[in-house]
Specification:
Order of helices and strands: HHHHHEEEHHEHHHEHHEHEHEHEHH
Catalytic activity: uroporphyrinogen III + 4 H(+) = coproporphyrinogen III + 4 CO2
Distance between the termini: 38 Å
Pathway: Porphyrin-containing compound metabolism; protoporphyrin-IX biosynthesis; coproporphyrinogen-III from 5-aminolevulinate: step 4/4
Subunit structure: Homodimer.
InterPro entries: UROD/MetE-like_sf (IPR038071), Uroporphyrinogen_deCO2ase_HemE (IPR006361), Uroporphyrinogen_deCOase (IPR000257)
Number of helices: 17
Mean pLDDT: 90
Number of strands: 9
GO cellular component, one term: chloroplast
Length: about 400
């Protein structure tokens, strides 16, 4: 793995002086005090993901930057290639900041794609206007596995550079999010050769060539773990893991072919970046919620088909929850959108909730509705929504 440096995450290798040996209780007390005193200046979304007491729910949207915004459509006319828009630093920064400047969400997510790191591990791909992503040499044999390489960060340097610029531009006024695809989801594209509605080849491989599938998923797990760490060391403060096609599996199959690789990935990331929250989102995760809890992530995203109150009950109060307004409601009258925001927030409870949609912003969504979503969120206060709720006093910095 390449040597990664960043002003946002200091390498432990730089501090080699012997430290005094403290008992565990003393160390825990000091670390807790330092976290409490420093986190009060952290962005709201970051604090919510850590389960801290905050005055209102933070909000952002999946697919926050993109085709519903006129400014994006104007830019896409000048730069019609999606690969160019998502791999050119100037364009990445401009597109990422478009919704930030327009709506001031609490989270700003990098404009990129879950397939962006594929060329860096030896899997070239194209994007067709009619078919979406296309991988011309899908993996079908052990020989294909040999083509895979360790991740080459020089081939995704535009991601690191963009994150560094964005972190400075946002200036801690919002949380900067990076994201990745889960191994099963990325593996689906690599084996199917692109998008699919049936997942026939990869599901068949679970039974006809499990050794090949295991080898691919293991390679992806290592590469994606390193890619997450790279994003964090470049400035990302929170990472969302998209297991977009995990919900297409029966729960017992997801338990065997997706969950272990997510758990391993989370474990590796937490060793390097223990304080960076990880969010796991699976589209169609209603049958998987309880199984997602012990993946080790800090927050679980719900899609819009799960009732928020039921989701919170099933997940419990010890893990964060994200979501889950129906994206189609942004086409409805604004009072209906306001009512549903209130419903979701009340059902999620006053701690550990990040307000979001239950899926990405839909093409054609009125920008007025997106602005209203964030305007309403900024007016909310847990003290007025939940009887007996009190903000915990902030600790003074340790002198």
């Amino acid at each position: 793995m390449a040597n990664l440096t960043s002003p946002f995450l200091t390498s432990p290798q730089l501090h080699l002086r012997r430290r005094p040996n403290l008992c565990q209780s003393t160390k825990a007390s000091i670390q807790s005090t330092i976290r409490a005193s420093s986190s009060s200046s952290d962005p709201l979304l970051l604090r919510a993901a850590r389960g801290e007491t905050i005055p209102r729910p933070p909000a952002w949207m999946m697919r926050q930057a993109g085709r519903y915004m006129q400014s994006y459509k104007d830019l896409a006319i000048k730069h019609p290639s999606f690969r160019e828009r998502s791999e050119n630093v100037d364009l990445i920064v401009e597109i990422t900041l478009q919704p930030w400047k327009a709506f001031k969400p609490d989270g700003v997510i990098l404009f990129s794609d879950i397939l962006t790191p594929l060329p860096a591990i030896g899997v070239p791909f194209d994007i067709s206007d009619s078919k979406g992503p296309v991988i011309h040499d899908p993996i079908q044999s052990e020989k294909c596995i040999e083509r895979l390489t360790p991740i080459d960060f020089d081939k995704v340097s535009f991601v690191g550079e963009s994150l560094r610029i964005l972190r400075n531009e946002i200036n801690n006024e919002a949380t900067l999010l990076g994201f990745v695809g889960a191994p099963w989801t990325i593996g689906t594209y690599i084996i199917e050769g692109g998008s699919t509605r049936t997942y026939q080849n990869i599901k068949n491989m679970c039974y006809t060539a499990p050794h090949i599938l295991k080898a691919l998923l293991s390679h992806l797990t290592k590469a994606i773990s390193e890619y997450i760490i790279y994003q964090v060391k470049s400035g990302a403060q929170c990472i969302q893991i998209f297991d977009s096609w995990g919900g297409q599996l029966p729960p017992h199959v997801w338990e065997k072919w997706s969950k272990p690789y997510i758990k391993q990935m989370v474990s590796e990331v937490k060793k390097e970046c223990p304080d960076v929250p990880l969010v796991l989102y699976i589209n169609g995760n209603g049958g998987l919620l309880e199984r997602m809890v012990d993946t080790g992530v800090d927050v679980i995203g719900l899609d819009w088909t799960v009732d928020m109150a039921d989701g919170r009950r099933r997940l419990g109060s010890k893990i964060g929850i994200q979501g889950n307004v129906d994206p189609a409601l942004l086409f409805s009258p604004l009072p209906a959108l306001t009512e549903d925001i209130h419903r979701v927030v009340k059902a999620a409870g006053p701690r550990g909730h990040i307000l979001n949609l239950g899926h990405g912003v839909l093409v054609g969504t009125p920008e007025e509705a997106v602005a209203h979503f964030f305007d309403v969120t900024r007016t909310l206060r847990y003290e007025s929504l939940f009887e007996g709720f009190k903000l915990e006093p902030e600790l003074a910095p340790v002198s």
